[in-house]
Automatic annotation (TrEMBL):
InterPro entries: Glyco_trans_1
Protein name: GDP-mannose-dependent alpha-(1-6)-phosphatidylinositol dimannoside mannosyltransferase
Keyword Transferase: yes
Record bears the keyword Aminoacyl-tRNA synthetase: no
Regions crossing the membrane: none
CDD domains, A to Z: GT4_GT28_WabH-like
Xref: PANTHER family: GLYCOSYLTRANSFERASE (PTHR12526)
Known EC number: 2.4.1.57
Top-level division of the source organism's lineage: Bacteria
Species, as recorded: Cesiribacter andamanensis AMV16
Amino acid sequence: MALEALKNKSIGIIIPDFDHGGEEKRALFFANKYVSYFKKVYLFAPEGAQTPLLDSRVQQVRTPIRGYRSVLGVLRYVQQQQIDFIQGHKRTTFPYLLMLEKFSRAKVNFNFDNIYLDKEWLYRFAPTRLYYLSDHMKDHYQRWFKDRENITINMGGEFYTPIPNSEAEALKRELKLENCFVLISLGRLSDQKNQEVTLKALSRIADESIVCLMVGEGPKEAQLKQLAGELNLPHRVQFLGHRSDVAKLLSIADVLVQSSIFEGFPNVFIEAASLALPIITTRVGSYSTLVGDNGIAVAVNDVEAFAEAILEMKANYPRYAEHACTLSQSAYFKEFHKSKMLENYLLQYSKDAQNA
């Protein structure tokens, strides 16, 4: 890559949260990689779970982003440091990006990682350049942004390697999963992820060898645990909270399940597909980019269809697993590695630097 033009440039990433979410992890990834290409890298975000993982060369400007009290402070800082590029994550940053585009020298962009169902009034504050993590997302949003520069850069994620069989068997014993057909749900326990559908679907299935690992934490944790109790599922559902061993958990699962009401391009699809794991999902966002013959997609909130999909998956598992294996080894799938996503972002910034 011709990236020499970036050596004397600086970049700032702005994000309203910095904990365990997928977008926060992407911001962390970008910040830690950008230090090898840019003269200086800044991160505007509050203290969070990802802060200790930042490369020491990243300058974190710890400031609250939600509520917009910090707009003028961030603007002054960017002006004083003469930051060349600003990369925004999550729609809450729109007012910051608008001010920075109008009143600083920075070239500003925003990264759409989700297809949102509300707060369309925020779109009036969007900057000129918008990046989308799939063509499906770009097609969805262009009706609002016909006068913007709309660019697709495919989502990139982690490619995992299966753990050794002995380690997988030990983990299964630890979690009491021997002889089980294991569903795994990964994500924040929230309204968006809609894990109630997964629990209700499981409760309609008489086969008690079908169990589910719920990995994640969030505002609906207590409610979901209560629901699992009401549905008589405590022996079939394990709430594991936040885990750092996601690759190991995916390695012992049979199917990834996701019953979200809206999504953009879930990073977990890439992680699961890298391990040749079939996927059951709702038809939201960019699901069809990675879910075809390797999985089953159903309508949002259709509990019966979700239950039927689980039973169909178990009954014909070898066929779905074979298609999942084919996808994981394809040249098409290799385009979704996070290193490819990084390369494409850097090329965009390099073009801007050369044209400045």
